Amino acid sequence: MIFDFFVAVMNTNISDLQSRLANPQDIVILTHRNPDGDALGSSLALALYLRQSLHQVSVILPSEYPLSFSFLPEVDQCLVYDFEPEECIQKIEKSTMIFCLDFNGLDRIDKLGSHVEKSSAYKVLIDHHMHPEPFADYTLSETTASSTCELIYRFLELLKDQRAITVDIATCIFTGLITDTGSFKYATTDRTFEVAAHLKRFGVDDYTLQDRIFNTYSERQLRLLGHCIYNRMEILPEYKTGIITLTKEDYKTYEIVRGDTEGIVNYLLKLNGIKVAAFITEQPTIVKLSLRSKGEFSVQEIASKHFNGGGHRNASGGSAYATLNSVVDRFKQVLPKYAEKYF
Fold first, then answer.
1. Which residues is 246 bridged to in the sheet?
2. I need a labelling partner for 179 at 20 to 30 A (CA). Which of 35, 40, 53, 269 fits?
3. Domains in the chain: how many in total?
4. Strand-strand pairing, 241-246 and 233-236
5. Of 190, 214, 238, which one is at a domain's C-terminal end?
6. What is the pTM of this model?
7. In the predicted structure, residue 8 carries a pLDDT above the cut 50
8. H or E stretch at 318
9. Which residues constitute the domain of residue 167?
């Protein structure tokens, strides 16, 4: 079954893309910096699918991926721009087709964006974030989709080739479903569960998959979580908001590496009465915000208007070149207006 809502969001007919894919292509798949489960799952699933048709496929990540996803099929074959910039640029320059997954603008892939913009390769954008930039020749964008992985499955349906799905491809797609919905707790639709059911029929072991993703904490990570909740948590009951902050010193003390802080923001929403969560971290040159909310409260609006970011209504991120304290203060200053609007 092909879902009808795709018709409104594609900027060209898929037959043109199908005809191009009928012949071997030199393909690059790109996803955003600091790749999460959806970014990795969608990229690897598409790569595994395209390689079946003898395309030359390279998956390029702007930065390294969290070790918790090291079990994913062929993830160790991904190129990381931060480590191999020249090879990554060469791959883009020689490519005949570029797939851009799980990001809506070229600034989300940092320095790689200018190389993609200059490339004459046929460009495909598949994404579920708001306001996609019109840089692609073919765009599949739907903000109500739970994840880009969900769109990858539907993309294969549009190609009428979902029978090509293997258990490895299904596992990669299911990874994005799990991680971007918080194990099916938010951002789901009836279509999300239909896709999940189909993937189960392809042999996905969802119990083992969830165990590998969520139950691989090290002792250091668990102590970091305790530190965040006990020492770095602030509750603003009048705004139904919780805030956790991390300083540069915290990063040194707990030897925090990429992926260690994944999911910490969600613990704030476990508190009774809390509707908005903010995880604000002091990086070497920038302060980053990870925002979550329940119900109609739009953290996307806060991120886009005040912190140069964006995302989804209930899950967004932003950043600012400022001090940690000033960013926290700015966040607190904008809260009253939104609390009045939504509460």
1. 281
2. 53
3. 2
4. antiparallel
5. 214
6. 0.89
7. no
8. strand 315-320
9. 4-214
